[in-house]
Amino acid sequence: MILLPLLFFLSVFYVIIKKNGFDISACITLMFIIISFCGVILGNYDYQFKYENYSKIEIGIIPTIVYCFSIGICIFPFYKFNSNKKRSIKKIENLFFLDILVYFYFFVFIFLLFVFWKDIVFILAYGDMGELRQMQYEGVLSNALATKGGIVRVIGGLFTIVGDGAYFLLPIFFYCLCLLNKGRFYLLIILLGSITPVLLGFINIDRSRTAFWILLFIISFFLFKPYIELKSQKRKLKQLFGLIGGVLIMYLAVVTISRFGERDEGASGGLLVYLGQPFINFCKIWDNIDSDHFFVSRVLPLTTFFLYGSSGTEEVVDYVMTSGSRTGLHLNVFFTYVGLFLVDMGHIAAILVPLLMFVVINGVLLKYRLAGAISLHSIIVVFAFAAILQCGIITYFYTSVPRALSFWFFIWYSYRYLK
What we know:
Layout: H1 4-20, H2 24-43, H3 61-81, E1 88-89, H4 96-115, H5 117-126, H6 129-137, H7 150-163, H8 169-178, H9 184-194, H10 196-203, H11 208-224, H12 231-260, H13 266-288, H14 301-308, H15 314-327, H16 336-345, H17 349-370, E2 373-374, H18 376-390, H19 401-417
Parallel strand pairs: 1-2
Helix pairs in contact: 1-2, 1-3, 2-3, 2-13, 3-17, 4-7, 4-9, 6-12, 7-19, 8-9, 8-11, 10-11, 11-18, 12-13, 13-16, 16-17, 18-19
């Protein structure tokens, strides 16, 4: 049974490649092929890891079908969209508002770099990222922002909220590279602004934001792949990604090795667990989770915040963190975006929410497919939807207020000013 997701996504991948070539839907599908392949290895590896011996978990037919269906149906609109098809892209008439956005996020990055420079130096000097992460779990290491005071803390707090959604600068980076033919310095400013979430993740010893940045950079690349034609464009892309992306990939590798290197399974075993656990966890949770709760705070964080004046995640976080001790079911794990719907809202939601996503995404992308030309706004919308699936190999991307706020801000701003 554990082979079924791998065979399913391989079949989907074959159909996509045959019809579209390697487009955005193929890229997303490949991510699920990778975690499905690792899941097959993990599910046949008889070893007691920190939480589970994954080979002992029963894989049922119903959760397997739900898992494949709920992910596959969300990939379908991107397959029909076919990002390899070269469409006419409208150029922005007034670049003033684009410049404001780019320089503002660059300023946010520089400001936060200045505010947290001592924390950055401390982390780099300490070196052992795994131990620092453990210290943070135990409350020994304070939140970096909590150690600041006065106006710096106020502005820093606002900028951390703004900066956590800077991933949306990535399609803007490619737009400026391909359509506006901007120079290296301007493009570098955009990329530096876009890694603000990575900076925030670094000071909080969090790798996920770095992983998200890399995944979303890849998605942005495939959205613009047909338009990267000139040698000068390719040269700029290689140089800038080699500089920024190379550092981030190295950081991700160092933190992973530091965290898992001293465990019995080693860094490779730890990586296997990270990549292979989503489907297995989904099946275990499906078969064992209770149905006496219904949380929406992580699925609709912005709505919850406006209705109740807070993120409202305290209850669901408490439920997730205490589940292991109460029932033996660990929920603070990776289970894909569909798994989060299952954990927070129950079995029916794991089917209905992806169905609703399909209806919305397919309707929007159909409109773009039929349009004579698309705009930067259209591309940002496609990117925003694709982020759910691309980062969904881990969990649901828009669980936090800052990311959900950025989702709506960039869609509104691009519609209003980036025409």
